[in-house]
Write a structure and sequence with these properties.
- By secondary structure, the chain is of the alpha/beta class.
- The protein folds into two domains: about 140 residues, NAD(P)-binding Rossmann-like Domain (Rossmann fold); about 90 residues, Dihydrodipicolinate Reductase, domain 2 (2-Layer Sandwich), CATH 3.30.360.
- Helix content is about 40%, strand content about 20%.
- The strands form two sheets. A six-stranded parallel β-sheet has the order 2-1-3-4-5-10, sandwiched between helices. The chain has a four-stranded mixed β-sheet with strand order 7-6-8-9, covered by helices on one side.
- Strand 6, helix 5 and strand 7 form a beta-alpha-beta unit.
- Helix 2 runs parallel beside helix 3.
- The chain is elongated, with a radius of gyration of 19 Å.
């Protein structure tokens, strides 16, 4: 992909830009990267996006629908939606992509570690869920400025836990705590507590480079083979990576 437009000039958008430029420098492949911040008049004009091979949406939840509309009107057929907090608009975005023949990978978190962490959590619930002595809980901590609470990743983890735990009717029955303080890029902890012991699984992001790496992997997945129009999850991307690069025990 030679022309990539990033909608959102915050920390994530700049991390994706840096990852693209670093890759281009290492491979010698040309790459034109356009980063657009908040539009002056409420929404981006399709002409402002140039002629993008890929559009990465990394702005604000309330801007996702308008930004996807601008992207497909600009001719983009491959998109990455890395913004969180827009779940209510998901059917509308999916319908728009299908109508225009565009495909997008969307996820609450593009960290490869987060996806594998979610699968570890599912396995842990299978082990601890049948034991009445252990109560499950979830703690997540993000930077002060993050507005959605709980995070999209925490919502996904809570759903995974509730779907497999015999004593939870839904994610609302799970004890979930959210912290918004300082500058933490993201920490998620899943625990199982009993009277005499506690077992915890923790994933801590040190910076946004892990998210940027996952976004580039999703972009490669979209380019590697024609994908059905509409929204795709990040899991198939990770499945292909694990299949090509087995994780040593």
């Amino acid at each position: 992909m030679n022309h990539i437009t990033i909608l959102g000039d915050g920390g994530l958008g700049r991390a994706v830009e840096a990852a693209i430029r670093e890759r281009a420098h290492g491979t010698g492949a040309p790459a034109e990267v356009l980063v657009l911040g908040r539009p002056a008049y409420g929404r981006h004009r399709p002409a402002d996006l140039g002629d993008p091979d890929l559009v990465v949406e990394a702005s604000r939840p309330e801007a996702v629908v308008a930004n996807v509309e601008a992207a497909v009107e600009a001719g983009a057929h491959r998109l990455i939606v890395a913004t969180t907090g827009w779940a209510a608009d998901r059917p509308r975005v999916d319908a728009l992509l299908r109508t225009t023949g565009a495909a997008a990978v969307a996820a609450p978190n593009f960290s490869l570690g987060v996806v594998l962490f979610g699968r570890l959590v599912e396995a842990a619930v299978e082990l601890f869920g049948p034991l009445d002595a252990f109560d499950p809980y979830l703690l997540e901590w993000h930077r002060r400025a993050k507005r959605d609470r709980p995070s999209g990743t925490a919502i996904d983890l809570a759903r995974r836990i509730a779907d497999r735990h015999p004593r939870l009717r839904s994610a609302d029955d799970l004890e979930v705590a959210s912290v918004r303080a300082g500058s933490s890029p993201g920490m998620h902890l899943v625990g199982f507590d009993a009277a005499g012991e506690t077992v915890e699984l923790r994933l801590t992001a040190r910076d946004r480079s892990a998210y940027a790496a996952g976004i580039l992997a999703a972009a490669d997945w979209l380019e590697r083979s024609p994908r059905d129009p509409g929204l795709h999850t990040f899991d198939p991307v990770v499945d292909e990576l694990v299949a090509r690069h087995p994780i040593a025990a």
